[in-house]
Amino acid sequence: MKINGIPVREVEENYVNIHPIQAAGRLTAEAMKALIAYGDGYSTCDQCRKPFRLDKITKPPIAEFHSDLAKFLNMDEARATPGARRAFQAVCLSLAEKGDIVLVSALAHYTEFLAVENARAAVKEVPLNKDNVVTGDAVAQKIEEVTREEGKKPALVMLDHFDYSFANEHDIAGAAKAAHQYDVPILYNGAYTVGIKPVDGKALGVDFVVGSGHKSMASPAPSGVLATTSEYADQVLRTTQMIGDVTGRKFGIKEVEMLGCTLMGANLLAMMASFPTIQRRINDWQEYVAKSNIVIDAILDIKGNKCLSEHPRKHTLTKVDTTGSFDTVATTHKRRGFFFSDELKQRGVVGEFAGATRTWKLNTYGLTWDQTSYVADVFKEIAEKYDLL
Ligand SMILES: *Cc1c(COP(=O)(O)O)cnc(C)c1O
Question: What residue's CA is closest to ligand 1, atom 5?
Protein backbone atom coordinates (compact mmCIF):
# COMPACT_ATOMS: atom_id res chain seq x y z
CA MET A 1 0.00 0.00 0.00
CA LYS A 2 1.25 3.49 -0.83
CA ILE A 3 0.19 7.07 -0.14
CA ASN A 4 1.13 9.11 -3.22
CA GLY A 5 4.20 6.95 -3.69
CA ILE A 6 5.09 6.87 0.02
CA PRO A 7 5.20 3.30 1.25
CA VAL A 8 3.11 2.60 4.35
CA ARG A 9 5.33 1.73 7.30
CA GLU A 10 4.35 -1.59 8.85
CA VAL A 11 7.32 -2.48 11.03
CA GLU A 12 5.36 -2.47 14.27
CA GLU A 13 2.45 -4.42 12.77
CA ASN A 14 4.52 -7.18 11.21
CA TYR A 15 7.50 -7.63 13.52
CA VAL A 16 8.74 -7.64 17.06
CA ASN A 17 10.88 -4.51 17.01
CA ILE A 18 13.90 -4.32 19.34
CA HIS A 19 15.33 -1.13 17.83
CA PRO A 20 17.36 0.76 20.47
CA ILE A 21 15.68 4.13 19.95
CA GLN A 22 12.22 3.09 18.74
CA ALA A 23 10.88 0.80 21.44
CA ALA A 24 9.34 3.31 23.84
CA GLY A 25 8.31 5.91 21.28
CA ARG A 26 5.84 3.56 19.62
CA LEU A 27 2.44 5.26 19.63
CA THR A 28 -0.62 4.25 21.59
CA ALA A 29 -3.85 3.79 19.65
CA GLU A 30 -5.10 7.00 21.30
CA ALA A 31 -2.09 8.95 20.01
CA MET A 32 -2.77 7.67 16.49
CA LYS A 33 -6.35 8.92 16.69
CA ALA A 34 -5.20 12.31 18.00
CA LEU A 35 -2.74 12.58 15.08
CA ILE A 36 -5.58 12.26 12.63
CA ALA A 37 -8.02 14.46 14.54
CA TYR A 38 -5.50 17.29 15.02
CA GLY A 39 -3.43 16.91 11.85
CA ASP A 40 -4.46 20.24 10.35
CA GLY A 41 -1.85 22.97 10.79
CA TYR A 42 -2.99 25.28 13.60
CA SER A 43 -5.65 22.84 14.79
CA THR A 44 -5.06 23.57 18.47
CA CYS A 45 -5.86 27.24 18.01
CA ASP A 46 -9.66 27.01 17.56
CA GLN A 47 -10.20 28.27 21.09
CA CYS A 48 -7.03 30.23 21.70
CA ARG A 49 -7.99 33.26 23.78
CA LYS A 50 -6.07 36.03 25.47
CA PRO A 51 -3.21 36.00 26.48
CA PHE A 52 -2.61 33.96 23.33
CA ARG A 53 -0.18 31.32 24.35
CA LEU A 54 -0.49 27.71 23.29
CA ASP A 55 0.26 26.24 26.72
CA LYS A 56 -2.58 28.33 28.23
CA ILE A 57 -5.31 26.91 25.96
CA THR A 58 -8.00 25.11 27.98
CA LYS A 59 -10.00 23.56 25.10
CA PRO A 60 -8.55 21.04 24.37
CA PRO A 61 -7.02 20.79 27.89
CA ILE A 62 -3.48 21.84 26.96
CA ALA A 63 -3.00 24.01 30.06
CA GLU A 64 -4.04 21.14 32.32
CA PHE A 65 -1.61 18.83 30.48
CA HIS A 66 1.25 21.21 31.19
CA SER A 67 0.52 21.34 34.89
CA ASP A 68 0.06 17.54 34.92
CA LEU A 69 3.47 17.18 33.24
CA ALA A 70 5.10 19.28 35.97
CA LYS A 71 3.42 17.19 38.67
CA PHE A 72 4.34 13.96 36.89
CA LEU A 73 8.03 14.89 37.15
CA ASN A 74 7.63 16.56 40.57
CA MET A 75 8.81 19.92 39.28
CA ASP A 76 7.13 23.35 39.39
CA GLU A 77 6.78 24.24 35.71
CA ALA A 78 6.78 22.25 32.49
CA ARG A 79 6.62 22.94 28.78
CA ALA A 80 6.15 20.54 25.91
CA THR A 81 9.03 21.01 23.47
CA PRO A 82 9.91 19.72 20.00
CA GLY A 83 12.22 17.02 21.37
CA ALA A 84 14.66 16.78 24.26
CA ARG A 85 17.25 18.63 22.19
CA ARG A 86 15.12 21.79 22.05
CA ALA A 87 14.85 21.66 25.82
CA PHE A 88 18.66 21.43 26.14
CA GLN A 89 18.87 24.32 23.73
CA ALA A 90 16.49 26.50 25.74
CA VAL A 91 18.40 25.85 28.95
CA CYS A 92 21.84 26.34 27.39
CA LEU A 93 20.83 29.57 25.67
CA SER A 94 19.42 30.88 28.96
CA LEU A 95 22.23 29.89 31.30
CA ALA A 96 25.41 29.80 29.25
CA GLU A 97 27.13 32.73 27.60
CA LYS A 98 29.75 32.79 24.91
CA GLY A 99 32.92 31.17 26.24
CA ASP A 100 31.21 29.48 29.19
CA ILE A 101 31.79 25.83 29.99
CA VAL A 102 28.97 23.31 30.26
CA LEU A 103 29.82 19.97 31.84
CA VAL A 104 28.42 16.87 30.17
CA SER A 105 29.15 13.19 30.66
CA ALA A 106 31.79 11.31 28.68
CA LEU A 107 28.77 9.37 27.40
CA ALA A 108 26.72 12.47 26.56
CA HIS A 109 24.41 12.42 23.56
CA TYR A 110 25.41 14.48 20.51
CA THR A 111 22.39 16.75 20.97
CA GLU A 112 23.85 17.93 24.29
CA PHE A 113 27.08 18.87 22.53
CA LEU A 114 25.15 20.72 19.84
CA ALA A 115 22.93 22.59 22.29
CA VAL A 116 26.07 23.87 24.05
CA GLU A 117 27.70 24.80 20.74
CA ASN A 118 24.51 26.56 19.67
CA ALA A 119 24.83 28.78 22.76
CA ARG A 120 28.46 29.52 21.77
CA ALA A 121 29.64 27.86 24.95
CA ALA A 122 31.94 24.81 25.11
CA VAL A 123 31.57 21.34 26.57
CA LYS A 124 33.93 19.63 28.98
CA GLU A 125 33.35 15.97 29.71
CA VAL A 126 33.10 14.34 33.11
CA PRO A 127 35.14 11.13 32.85
CA LEU A 128 33.68 7.70 33.62
CA ASN A 129 34.83 5.35 36.34
CA LYS A 130 36.05 1.82 35.53
CA ASP A 131 32.43 0.61 35.30
CA ASN A 132 31.54 3.28 32.70
CA VAL A 133 29.53 5.26 35.22
CA VAL A 134 29.57 8.96 36.13
CA THR A 135 29.77 9.52 39.89
CA GLY A 136 29.05 12.57 42.03
CA ASP A 137 32.74 12.70 42.95
CA ALA A 138 33.75 12.83 39.29
CA VAL A 139 31.38 15.76 38.75
CA ALA A 140 32.81 17.59 41.77
CA GLN A 141 36.38 16.98 40.59
CA LYS A 142 35.63 18.22 37.09
CA ILE A 143 33.93 21.36 38.41
CA GLU A 144 37.07 22.09 40.46
CA GLU A 145 39.35 21.38 37.51
CA VAL A 146 37.37 23.61 35.14
CA THR A 147 37.14 26.41 37.70
CA ARG A 148 40.92 26.24 38.19
CA GLU A 149 41.69 26.24 34.47
CA GLU A 150 39.08 28.71 33.26
CA GLY A 151 38.98 31.05 36.21
CA LYS A 152 35.22 30.56 36.47
CA LYS A 153 32.92 27.70 37.32
CA PRO A 154 30.86 25.88 34.68
CA ALA A 155 27.52 27.48 33.76
CA LEU A 156 25.64 24.17 33.85
CA VAL A 157 25.97 20.43 34.33
CA MET A 158 23.94 18.19 31.99
CA LEU A 159 23.82 14.54 32.91
CA ASP A 160 22.00 11.55 31.43
CA HIS A 161 20.38 9.27 33.98
CA PHE A 162 20.80 6.34 31.60
CA ASP A 163 23.16 7.05 28.71
CA TYR A 164 22.35 6.25 25.08
CA SER A 165 25.34 3.97 24.61
CA PHE A 166 25.31 1.38 27.41
CA ALA A 167 22.20 2.57 29.25
CA ASN A 168 24.25 2.41 32.42
CA GLU A 169 22.78 4.22 35.40
CA HIS A 170 24.67 7.36 36.41
CA ASP A 171 24.57 8.90 39.87
CA ILE A 172 22.22 11.83 39.27
CA ALA A 173 21.47 12.49 42.94
CA GLY A 174 25.20 12.47 43.74
CA ALA A 175 25.93 14.72 40.78
CA ALA A 176 23.16 17.14 41.81
CA LYS A 177 24.59 17.33 45.31
CA ALA A 178 28.07 17.97 43.93
CA ALA A 179 26.87 20.59 41.43
CA HIS A 180 24.93 22.47 44.08
CA GLN A 181 27.89 22.46 46.45
CA TYR A 182 29.57 24.67 43.84
CA ASP A 183 26.35 26.53 43.07
CA VAL A 184 26.14 25.15 39.54
CA PRO A 185 22.68 24.24 38.16
CA ILE A 186 22.11 20.71 36.89
CA LEU A 187 19.94 19.35 34.10
CA TYR A 188 18.66 15.78 34.31
CA ASN A 189 18.56 14.22 30.86
CA GLY A 190 15.73 11.70 31.05
CA ALA A 191 15.54 10.87 27.34
CA TYR A 192 15.74 7.19 28.37
CA THR A 193 13.65 7.44 31.56
CA VAL A 194 10.84 10.01 31.41
CA GLY A 195 7.80 8.06 30.18
CA ILE A 196 9.02 4.58 31.09
CA LYS A 197 10.14 4.78 34.72
CA PRO A 198 9.16 7.05 37.62
CA VAL A 199 11.18 10.29 37.73
CA ASP A 200 11.05 12.63 40.73
CA GLY A 201 12.96 15.82 39.98
CA LYS A 202 12.77 17.22 43.50
CA ALA A 203 13.92 13.97 45.11
CA LEU A 204 16.89 13.90 42.73
CA GLY A 205 17.57 17.53 43.55
CA VAL A 206 17.89 18.70 39.96
CA ASP A 207 17.02 22.08 38.46
CA PHE A 208 15.79 20.81 35.10
CA VAL A 209 14.22 17.56 33.93
CA VAL A 210 14.21 16.88 30.20
CA GLY A 211 12.35 14.06 28.47
CA SER A 212 11.94 12.92 24.89
CA GLY A 213 8.38 12.30 23.69
CA HIS A 214 9.42 10.28 20.66
CA LYS A 215 12.07 8.34 22.57
CA SER A 216 10.18 7.33 25.68
CA MET A 217 6.68 8.81 25.86
CA ALA A 218 4.80 6.98 23.08
CA SER A 219 4.63 10.21 21.10
CA PRO A 220 5.38 11.33 17.55
CA ALA A 221 8.55 13.16 16.54
CA PRO A 222 9.33 15.80 17.43
CA SER A 223 8.04 15.98 20.98
CA GLY A 224 9.58 16.31 24.40
CA VAL A 225 9.36 18.01 27.77
CA LEU A 226 11.29 20.58 29.74
CA ALA A 227 10.47 20.87 33.43
CA THR A 228 12.05 23.21 35.94
CA THR A 229 11.76 24.72 39.40
CA SER A 230 10.24 28.10 40.28
CA GLU A 231 13.80 29.21 40.95
CA TYR A 232 14.83 28.80 37.31
CA ALA A 233 11.48 29.31 35.59
CA ASP A 234 11.87 33.10 35.49
CA GLN A 235 15.16 32.78 33.68
CA VAL A 236 14.51 29.94 31.24
CA LEU A 237 10.85 30.72 30.65
CA ARG A 238 11.34 34.49 30.53
CA THR A 239 8.76 36.45 28.55
CA THR A 240 9.45 38.84 25.70
CA GLN A 241 10.61 42.39 26.42
CA MET A 242 10.93 43.52 22.81
CA ILE A 243 9.14 46.61 21.57
CA GLY A 244 8.90 47.44 17.87
CA ASP A 245 10.61 50.79 17.30
CA VAL A 246 8.21 51.88 14.55
CA THR A 247 4.97 50.34 15.74
CA GLY A 248 5.57 50.12 19.47
CA ARG A 249 4.26 46.58 19.38
CA LYS A 250 4.81 44.19 22.29
CA PHE A 251 3.96 40.53 22.55
CA GLY A 252 2.86 40.09 26.11
CA ILE A 253 3.69 36.80 27.78
CA LYS A 254 5.16 34.93 24.84
CA GLU A 255 8.19 33.04 26.10
CA VAL A 256 11.46 33.83 24.35
CA GLU A 257 13.10 30.39 24.49
CA MET A 258 9.87 28.72 23.37
CA LEU A 259 9.62 31.23 20.50
CA GLY A 260 6.15 32.14 21.71
CA CYS A 261 4.23 28.93 21.38
CA THR A 262 5.58 25.56 22.38
CA LEU A 263 5.02 22.17 20.77
CA MET A 264 2.09 22.53 18.38
CA GLY A 265 -0.79 20.69 16.80
CA ALA A 266 -1.05 16.96 16.31
CA ASN A 267 2.26 16.20 18.03
CA LEU A 268 1.17 17.87 21.24
CA LEU A 269 -2.30 16.32 21.16
CA ALA A 270 -0.86 12.88 20.48
CA MET A 271 1.49 13.33 23.42
CA MET A 272 -1.53 14.27 25.54
CA ALA A 273 -3.49 11.28 24.26
CA SER A 274 -0.68 8.91 25.30
CA PHE A 275 -0.22 10.53 28.70
CA PRO A 276 -2.68 8.35 30.70
CA THR A 277 -0.85 5.28 29.38
CA ILE A 278 2.48 6.86 30.28
CA GLN A 279 1.33 7.59 33.83
CA ARG A 280 0.24 3.98 34.18
CA ARG A 281 3.14 2.24 32.48
CA ILE A 282 5.93 3.79 34.54
CA ASN A 283 4.69 1.57 37.39
CA ASP A 284 5.52 -1.52 35.29
CA TRP A 285 9.16 -0.54 34.88
CA GLN A 286 10.58 -3.34 37.03
CA GLU A 287 8.67 -5.87 34.96
CA TYR A 288 10.27 -4.53 31.77
CA VAL A 289 13.69 -4.63 33.41
CA ALA A 290 13.09 -8.27 34.37
CA LYS A 291 12.16 -9.07 30.76
CA SER A 292 15.30 -7.29 29.57
CA ASN A 293 17.39 -9.54 31.84
CA ILE A 294 15.71 -12.65 30.44
CA VAL A 295 16.67 -11.71 26.88
CA ILE A 296 20.21 -10.63 27.83
CA ASP A 297 20.76 -13.83 29.83
CA ALA A 298 19.72 -15.85 26.78
CA ILE A 299 22.23 -13.93 24.67
CA LEU A 300 24.90 -14.58 27.33
CA ASP A 301 24.11 -18.32 27.27
CA ILE A 302 25.64 -18.34 23.80
CA LYS A 303 29.38 -19.06 23.97
CA GLY A 304 31.58 -16.02 23.32
CA ASN A 305 28.92 -13.38 23.93
CA LYS A 306 29.43 -10.46 26.29
CA CYS A 307 27.21 -7.80 27.80
CA LEU A 308 29.00 -4.45 27.53
CA SER A 309 26.39 -2.66 29.66
CA GLU A 310 26.09 -3.03 33.43
CA HIS A 311 24.87 -6.51 34.26
CA PRO A 312 22.38 -7.51 35.62
CA ARG A 313 20.52 -4.91 33.62
CA LYS A 314 18.74 -1.96 35.19
CA HIS A 315 17.37 -0.84 31.84
CA THR A 316 15.77 -2.31 28.72
CA LEU A 317 18.43 -0.86 26.39
CA THR A 318 21.61 -2.93 26.28
CA LYS A 319 24.85 -3.06 24.32
CA VAL A 320 26.10 -6.55 23.62
CA ASP A 321 29.25 -7.91 22.03
CA THR A 322 28.79 -10.91 19.77
CA THR A 323 32.26 -10.83 18.20
CA GLY A 324 32.96 -14.26 19.69
CA SER A 325 29.79 -15.83 18.29
CA PHE A 326 27.67 -14.37 15.46
CA ASP A 327 30.63 -12.44 14.05
CA THR A 328 32.62 -15.66 13.58
CA VAL A 329 29.83 -16.81 11.25
CA ALA A 330 29.79 -13.47 9.42
CA THR A 331 33.47 -13.78 8.44
CA THR A 332 32.75 -16.71 6.11
CA HIS A 333 29.05 -16.24 5.31
CA LYS A 334 28.26 -14.98 1.80
CA ARG A 335 25.86 -12.41 3.26
CA ARG A 336 28.57 -11.34 5.76
CA GLY A 337 27.07 -9.58 8.79
CA PHE A 338 23.68 -9.45 7.11
CA PHE A 339 23.21 -13.16 7.72
CA PHE A 340 22.28 -12.24 11.29
CA SER A 341 19.62 -9.66 10.35
CA ASP A 342 18.31 -12.14 7.76
CA GLU A 343 17.96 -14.87 10.37
CA LEU A 344 16.26 -12.53 12.84
CA LYS A 345 13.91 -11.12 10.23
CA GLN A 346 12.91 -14.57 9.02
CA ARG A 347 11.82 -15.19 12.61
CA GLY A 348 9.93 -11.92 12.80
CA VAL A 349 12.42 -9.91 14.83
CA VAL A 350 13.81 -6.59 13.55
CA GLY A 351 15.59 -3.55 14.92
CA GLU A 352 19.19 -4.62 15.45
CA PHE A 353 21.59 -2.60 13.30
CA ALA A 354 21.56 -4.44 9.97
CA GLY A 355 24.94 -6.01 9.25
CA ALA A 356 26.32 -5.51 12.76
CA THR A 357 27.60 -8.70 14.38
CA ARG A 358 30.26 -7.31 16.72
CA THR A 359 28.85 -4.71 19.12
CA TRP A 360 25.24 -3.67 18.79
CA LYS A 361 22.30 -2.51 20.87
CA LEU A 362 18.82 -3.78 21.50
CA ASN A 363 15.89 -2.44 23.47
CA THR A 364 13.32 -4.88 24.78
CA TYR A 365 10.97 -2.21 26.15
CA GLY A 366 7.30 -3.02 25.65
CA LEU A 367 7.67 -6.77 24.99
CA THR A 368 4.97 -9.01 26.43
CA TRP A 369 6.07 -12.10 28.40
CA ASP A 370 5.39 -14.26 25.34
CA GLN A 371 7.42 -11.98 23.11
CA THR A 372 10.20 -11.95 25.70
CA SER A 373 10.64 -15.72 25.72
CA TYR A 374 10.17 -15.78 21.95
CA VAL A 375 12.98 -13.26 21.36
CA ALA A 376 15.21 -15.08 23.88
CA ASP A 377 14.58 -18.35 22.00
CA VAL A 378 15.24 -16.77 18.61
CA PHE A 379 18.82 -15.85 19.58
CA LYS A 380 19.44 -19.37 20.86
CA GLU A 381 17.87 -20.91 17.78
CA ILE A 382 20.15 -18.93 15.45
CA ALA A 383 23.16 -19.86 17.60
CA GLU A 384 22.15 -23.52 17.45
CA LYS A 385 21.79 -23.42 13.68
CA TYR A 386 25.39 -22.23 13.35
CA ASP A 387 26.77 -24.51 16.08
CA LEU A 388 27.56 -21.68 18.48
CA LEU A 389 25.95 -22.99 21.66
C1 LIG B 1 17.60 10.29 22.14
C2 LIG B 1 18.40 11.08 23.09
C3 LIG B 1 18.41 12.49 23.04
C4 LIG B 1 17.71 13.28 21.97
O5 LIG B 1 16.33 13.31 22.17
P6 LIG B 1 15.39 14.07 21.12
O7 LIG B 1 14.07 14.07 21.78
O8 LIG B 1 15.44 13.30 19.84
O9 LIG B 1 15.94 15.45 20.95
C10 LIG B 1 19.13 13.16 23.99
N11 LIG B 1 19.83 12.51 24.94
C12 LIG B 1 19.85 11.17 25.03
C13 LIG B 1 20.61 10.51 26.12
C14 LIG B 1 19.14 10.42 24.11
O15 LIG B 1 19.18 9.09 24.21
Answer: 84
